[in-house]
Amino acid sequence: MKYSKLHRTLPLLALLLAGLLTSCGELFSFEPTVPPATMTLDRHELLLMIGDRTTLTPIFDPDTIRNTTLYWMSDDPNVATIEDNEIVAVGEGETVLTAISMEKRIYDTCHVTVQRPWSVIQGNYPFEMMLYLDVTVEGQPLQSHHLLAAFCDDEVRGVGEAKEAYGIPYTAMRIHSRNNPHPPFDPVLHPQDPLYPNDEEQQPERFVLRLYDRQTLHLYESPDTITFDGEAHGTLSDLIHVDFQ
Whole-prediction pTM value? Predict the structure, then answer.
């Protein structure tokens, strides 16, 4: 007799339990009480020059994680490697660094580009022009850890040199070009004229200025381009002002 009553009661209990777990026709979902741990590097892109050293800082969530020890791997140690938790730029190229935390076995990556120090290959360019500049970075005077260069595409064609005369600091830059800025043709010719210089080797080269901060590892680029004309631009009393933002 008791078994028969229990048998009839079980379906009713099941219906009541289903009603408690259902709201508006959807079952409640139970979230885990402990969220998964994550680890994120403070930078995912790095631009370095050969010989540069820097560090990457891991950010753990939750911040109660105790073991913050990282193990590093480099896809190409000939480009960048890790010494005593410092990233060291070894050679020109690109690689990916992977930081692995033994806490929960979580990881993150950073793409690293290493470039050779900016310099011009002497003897490759028969023509040159001079710029006399007053350079600032976000409104502040140029510092020793700032490097300035002129690029034609991705080729260095000029490097800024800090100078001072009569108490006036300035930057001198000699820009080199392969193309003759005064070729033996009439520059007023119409593009449809058969004699119009359509050969790229006869066109004046164009340059962009880039500034690299070796402390912050930030690369700036001027918004304007420079057309090579073989002349000198700027004077000590009338320097060309360039502000990198």
Answer: 0.73
C-alpha distances in angstroms, 175 versus 99, 148, 149, 206, 223? 41, 12, 9, 11, 18
Cα angle, residue 43 at apex, residues 41 and 47 outer, rounded to 5°: 140
- Rounded Cα distance between 113 and 163, Å, is 30
**Closest-CA residue to 87 (of 118, 48, 117):** 48
CA distance 216 to 22: 55
Q: Encode pLDDT of 39-81 as tens digits.
A: 999 999 999 999 999 999 999 988 888 888 889 999 999 999 9
Name the stretches of the chain with pLDDT < 70: 1-35, 104, 183-202
Enumerate residues 6+ apart whose C-beta is below 8 A from 165.
Answer: 236
